[in-house]
Records
---
Amino acid sequence: MRYLRLFYCLLSVFPLIGNGQNTDSSAPYNRGKILYLQHCFVCHQLNGQGIPNTYPPLAQSDFLNADKKRSIRILCEGQGGIITVNGKQYEGTMPAMVLRDQEVADVLTYVHNSWGNTNGPILSEEVREVRKTTAYSTFEQLAAVSAYPPIPKAPAGLKIRELVKLPINGVRLASDGKGKSLFVLSGSGDVHRVDIASGLVKPLIVARDYLVKKVGDIGGPVMVTGMTVDKQRRLYTVINQQNNATLPVQNFVTVYRSTSFNPAGDPIDLKPWFTTNYPGNSSYLHAAEHIAFGPDGFVYISNGARTDGNEANGDTNYYQKGETEITACIWRLDPRQTPPTMEVYARGIRNAYGFTWSPKGEMFATENGPDAPAPEELNLIEKGKHYGFPYRFADWTKKAYNHTPEPPAGMEFTLPIPNMGPDGGFMGSSISSFDPHSCPGGIVWLSDDFPEPYRDTMLLTRFGNFIREPRDAGFDILQVRLKKNSTAQYESEVRSFLAPLGRPVDIHQSGKGSLYILEYSRPTTPALSYSMPGRIVEIKVATTGGAGGVPPK
């Protein structure tokens, strides 16, 4: 029950759109199917087969079928330690799910009567009685442990406030940079508008208005984590959807671009602008994630690996090889073209959730590493370079897995930027670049609007670990200051900037001296459920003239 990196973890609570089959909301089984897609399928898969050696199967599971009350308890309280399912051992932690009694009954009714399981319905009354015997004897008690944490103390010279509690699990922030409003993207493709002055949140773009026809056409689940706004105030979203109608299953990537504005001047009417596809994977849906405009005016999109480490899928409905020419890389597109042509800008990048540019035009990207305990990476991205995946991770020279392939003869790799401490994974020696499994996400380069100790540094979010580790990693914002060593290569000084935070996933700069941090959900440790929506935290320069205190150097 270990997690499969940032985007997998996010997906586990995304409101996914179904495959067009019977959706009678009055039937517990069909309500449960929707809940399963929202909360369970990423780990246990669409077919209930789980992921070998990582997440146990639910399909024809002897562990599941042996004890209905135990399955209720696990959803209400969570499960840890070693379990044996169909003769194989699994070790890890599954958090309690913040679901009401009827919702627990519905999702378990679906699971207990799918994929060869025939256990009959689960009733809300049964859930209520079992819940009384758990650590959280009522839904209200469980919900209470998912309350919003206190706002951390502001870094020196800056001030901090909670801008707004969100009604959705946000995955990305964007704006026109003027500091008046923010756009918040949900994992289902909805976009909300936040007025910065008042904190008022309202829906702007509803996913079904521009996705439903596409979903009905090709039938698979949807994953959305990319959004940006161009200089013409056009809004872009990046949509991933698996096509289950043809085999092998394909992942279709569509970039939508707004075509008009509402009376308030906000972008609306999203239409397809670019599309491509490649083989999908039932276990890893990293897919296309971040989209941003570079200083050259081109559009850059990170497209993640379709595997954890180039392994075969094992399910004959899916492509039986590893990466393709357009996965695990960064694409570049020309926004002046419709549709644009796409080139691969850099390769060997497993899962880059965020990137930014320095005033010199240098591109820097965060990267999430594998389930193996390799450090997470910060890379200087240069055109034509290869960053190692799937042949090596971070600065490791050893193989991460037995199936790790040998690199092609003559291939050169660009190593991550070393972290010289004192924080972010540094423990007396350098690390390339951050704690394993800490999930670095959104990243910004601070402008001249900030006091000198922050100016010309990068801030990056760390979503936080799910894989069992000796200590929690992430749930924070790191500050990165770069310098070149004696060989003219970048090294970084890494310091904690803000902690703890509830699953911070993105950071955005909009307006003079203003930053906005998007918390995906509320917990500040891996132990609690992450299904409750988070909030937006604002950080601003404390005084008009500069720092109101003496920031750390």
Note: Residues 185 and 191 are 5 Å apart (CA to CA).
---
Amino acid sequence: MKRLFYIVAMFCLAACGGGNTSDEVVVELRSRKFDFSTTQAPLDIDFGTQFSSLEDVTKGFTIKFQLDLPRLDKSLAHQTLFEVSDVVKFSYSLRSPDEWSHQNYPACWREGDEWVPVIEAELMLQSEDGKQNEKLTVGVPLAALENVNSVSEVVLHFTGVEFSIYVDGRLYDSDFAIGYPSLSEWHTVSSAEQVYNPVFYAPALLPAVVEEYPTDNNIQYWTPPFHNAWVGDVATIYHKGRYHIFYLFDRRGHASKLGRGGHYFEHLSTEDFKTWVEHEPAVAIEHQWETLGTGTPFIYNDKLHLAYGLHTTRIYPREQTTLPMMWGYFDEHKKTQVVDYTSIKDVVAAGSTYSVSADGVADFSKSHTLIHPCENPSIFTDREGRLRMLANYGARGEWSAESLDEGWQCVNDTFPPGGDCTFFFEWGGYEYIIGGFRQLFSRRSGEGDDRWWDMVAEGRDMYNGLSVPAVSEIADGRRLLAGWVKTRNWGGVLVLHEMVQFPDGALGSKWMEEVVPATEKAEVCSAEDVISAEEPSFMLTFDVEPEEAYRGRIGVTLSGEGGEKSACEWQMMFDRCRAQFSTAVECGFAQNERTLSEGGDAAAAHNYAITGGMPQKGKVRVRMCVYNHSKLRGSIVDVEIAGQRTMLSYRPDLKVEGVAFHSDGVKVANIRKANLK
């Protein structure tokens, strides 16, 4: 389904001490409602009986039944409601609000309740060799449902690749299978009194999308609208007036697909950064052997492409994939093999491939072409329009190709040094290569390969708490920095900042005004008081000025629900041109944290330091946004320093109730606080 449905809506401006003048943002989500009506005849199965094996389990099955939600026994810790023995089990259980597993059920906990009621479905799987049994679990916290006081239709849907749970037609959770249920014997069907009219279909039904247009109210700190879904690696491009964000859709913090990740590329875009559209996935998982890795969008023959990696070695041993074949070809021919992987027998595709957009906006189709054995390709076009690739994960170096139909030749086998994910961009006479979580290299445009310098080693990096950041040039020569902020596990929230370039080529960042969260009316506050946070999501703006140039420091402590261990301090040191996030201490300033060059870990987005790019004298404007959401089980703290450097931190368990300033040789003035809308 393709949808470009735009809501025409303007919202009132909301100012925060002159700091926030951005309109509210709307994200137009695609429909997650489906119609399972069918003319397909169901299997003839009765309660308490047995049924024979399916003709072809690889084509999946669909189970529909009515669930009387009000009649669930709330006193039971666990109750099996429906079961096809050794195949599917559907149950109701009570979970502790402190049980923050990969399913993230407490995201929908209602404060004051003792338990988190959950319905879950388990699919039992058998490995190809029949020696190992695994299970997929999908579930829904009842608080996430639209109506828990009625009889609802539950659909358990196994396509042969994906196992999903729907309630009243809406998708709530899914996971990807490796293996199939064992249906070689007869199986018993049983159900509790709360389950009515179970119906079985095989092969699986093909549901139709029911058009509805849900929206979200902001793109900053955004996550997909499911209790256990997060934003993974981000890849961006600006093409024909439209900014595209491709991101690895993650459920369960890299624990889906039996721990193999099960990621695929979802797709958002915008023309004005106010109205965002969620498209159909740019690259979906269609086979059990597929699990995808990071790549980059690029333009080739005036068409929008998306390169990505097939991380098949997470499922199969390397010798059972195409990697030995492709490296063998390269060793012999000194260029990589280009092959249609649907024509390959006996081994499974792994390495670099790409998809192509039919309309330049969305509507992507897989090329089914392997072009390189590296499993995280970073493809771009240089100033002359030639294809270039930076190889990652399983390879290294810079590569070149005349076209996508020909092989890639290595033009530099030592640089870049590989790693996780890289991203190339040019700006102001400099070239840059971002290296995933902690690498950043630069050289002047046109210089030789021996002139790259390590900006992280020099302490001149721009890492600010984002993981795997991507940079794209948009209109008016602006550069946008996009990535994800890590929360509990792998994956987290989406963040967009705008890049800043200093005269010596060093990089910084500032808030992107178009996506700054809208606020309520601001209130004036005093630095001498503990500022009360009536709402846990708010914005602060304040000015700091050292009494003597190049001396003094300022600390801001955020404390509240979660106790002393969750209290956070942001600190700025004028004498060292340095700022940091730390765990707050009872008195005085927190201990010094480390920068990347000192062995710190900014990508962990917790306690770390940055240095450089900050004023050391005169008045400095600071903006701080605190975003709290039950899904996060904590808060995101986003700080902008003088419109030149930004810092992001995830503070687990923190729900801010008070803000306190403390300083040494620094004056604090013009404090404004405004709640986020």
Note: Residues 1-22 have pLDDT under 50 and may be disordered.
